[in-house]
Amino acid sequence: MCSLIKVLFISVLQLWAGSVLAQQVAVNSLQHQIASDHSRLIFGLSAPISHKVFQLDNPPRLVVDISNASLKGTLDQPPSNHPIFKKVRSAARNDKDLRVVIDLKKNGIVKSLKVPANQAGSYQLMIDLFPKQDTHAAKPPVTHSVSSHPLVPKLNPSPKPAKKPSPNPEAVAVAYKPVVKKPVKKEPQRNRDVVIAIDAGHGGQDPGAKGPHGTHEKDVTFAIAKKLAALIDRKSGMRAVMVRQGDYFIDLKKRMKIARESKADLFVSIHADAYDNPSVKGASVFTLSNKGATTEMARWLANHENSADLVSGVSLVDKDDVLASVLLDLSMTATQEASQNAATKVLGSLKQIGHLHSRSVQKAGFLVLKSPDVPAILVETAFISNPDEESKLRSVAHQDKMARAIFNGIDSYFQQSAPAGTYIAEQGRQHVISSGETLSGIAQQYGVSMQKIKTTNAMNDNQVRIGQVLSIPVDG
Ligand SMILES: [Zn+2]
Fold it and tell me: Is residue 405 pLDDT above 90, yes or no?
């Protein structure tokens, strides 16, 4: 073959390959999530697909065949402590299809759902794996898992089963008007209370998880939430707003809206976990995952095009999309930092009253946490599926203890990071010196000059000792 023909031949080959690739669906991402009653895989796709899902035994694995698709980038591996998913691998098949194999810790019942494109133009394939043991749990209505669990980002309207006899949850949500204790005007910027929105998980026709003795998650979350609210209201400079005030359903977006409307400084969602292995136990604290935030942000932007002043007083209406998303991103970064700090404090406090399921703050794409302007955490108080923890969750003494621990965490978060203009910030804060800390580090942490700290605490030099309690003045 002469070299010109060779070049032409190769060019034709490339063109042909290019046209095949152009028609292929790109598989861009894979997320793994854990919900109270199932585990979920979410594939991010460039276009609608046709696919097949099946399971194999010895070793247990889930096979997802996607026709005419190829992998873009790498698929994320599940965390090693994921209850169901072990390892993800993939390979091309028949020159044009993609096979993804997920090694499982055990088989389950599979359900898959294709989600139409969201605002960002991304399609999704969701695959849910339900535990086998409980026949009732085997076929939960798709609408429940899509619309009412905090783990599941609510996307564009998903295909609904033809008949759904239960009342329309949206209708209930619309009918509900939150009762906020001081709804209209707050004294501008001086000595105001910090506001904590307390969100008792689930409610009404959505009972949440169920314990082996029949305890409903919605009831224990509400009991703990009420006790927490009472503790908060008892403390000067703090005020609680209960997101739901009784046993009724509110959808997740509405929960966040109530928090925003009450100008909450922190949103605390209270839940109880469940898993099919009854020995799994302990508390965990979650914040929002960065992953998926981009598309949620895009959606959020789209929904709020006409609302101004939501992002640190900057109207997004007259900004172009790129600028608007940068502003939103900045606002979210600050909010995420605050959420992380609050979550760390609450986790540290929960550690003192019992077993933790996860020792570090967990991140997940909870829709209920996705607000760019209110720091938010979600507390899984315990596993209601564990008989011991279920009876603890029912006990008033334990509910008190749990509420107290969450309160202590929230309190110490605000002692350290009360927003300017609040009573707590103006009263000054206290800092207990721990090992390795220096005066200059503490000054930096609070954004106060070293001199001011020294004056306030009548210090002659820069020496601090472990256990010493410093009053931290407000700068300016
Ligand atoms: Zn829950």
Answer: yes
